[in-house]
What we know:
Layout: H1 3-22, H2 26-29, H3 40-52, H4 55-65, H5 68-80, H6 84-93, H7 107-124, H8 132-142, E1 160-164, E2 170-172, E3 175-179, H9 181-188, H10 203-210
Parallel strand pairs: 1-3
Antiparallel strand pairs: 1-2
Helix pairs in contact: 1-6, 1-7, 3-5, 3-6, 4-5, 7-8, 8-9
Amino acid sequence: xxxxxxxxxxxxxxxxxxxxxxxxxxxxxxxxxxxxxxxxxxxxxxxxxxxxxxxxxxxxxxxxxxxxxxxxxxxxxxxxxxxxxxxxxxxxxxxxxxxxxxxxxxxxxxxxxxxxxxxxxxxxxxxxxxxxxxxxxxxxxxxxxxxxxxxxxxxxxxxxxxxxxxxxxxxxxxxxxxxxxxxxxxxxxxxxxxxxxxxxxxxxxxxxxxx
Length: 211
């Protein structure tokens, strides 16, 4: 997918996320997301991180905190404490920003938006979800070697073939795991809750790797 198409999809999904957050009550902001360490508010903080934390600051913070994962968890919580109106404004103001994180490329921010939006929407019972094209780009990224840098641990997809049932997409070799693009992406990204939406002879193997 050309970079300009990825950036356009990312802008759309960032606005979609902003609209979703704008419609939440204060109680909903405090709900636990699909991410074990983050509430809905913390996820929102994570999504505005690229616009509030420079790359040099992120690198330094990661070194001090013991790794990028730990720094991201703490930094997202800190950013999530900002006023809700400010968080939403940052997402909308920077919706069209084009950037490609070093080592992962432009599909990484799109994947963040698609997956983390569902991390919020699903436990809240909302049907907000990314477009089929955005999910396709997300799946392309999650099944690529670049996703091993903070998104998918090495070996999770070994011996498996993932196939979407809602669009023409498949990747991998081995036992098949099939289902909606969203469910595939969430499961590959480590969300065990999506396993019930999947099928195929490879599902027990994938389930064992997540649970």
